[in-house]
Amino acid sequence: MKNTIGAVLLAAASFVALSSCTKDPLKDMTEDESRIYITNHDSTANFNSYKTYSIVDSVSLIDNNRFAGKEATSWDVAVIAAVQNALNARGFVKVDRTQSPNLGINISRIYSTTTSVVDLYDYWGGYGGYYDPYYWGYSGYGYYFPSTYGVYQSTEGALSIDVLDLKDASSSGNTIKGVWNGLVRGAGIFRSSNVQSQVQALFDQSPYLKTSR
Question: Coil, helix or strand for 128?
Answer without folding.
Answer: coil
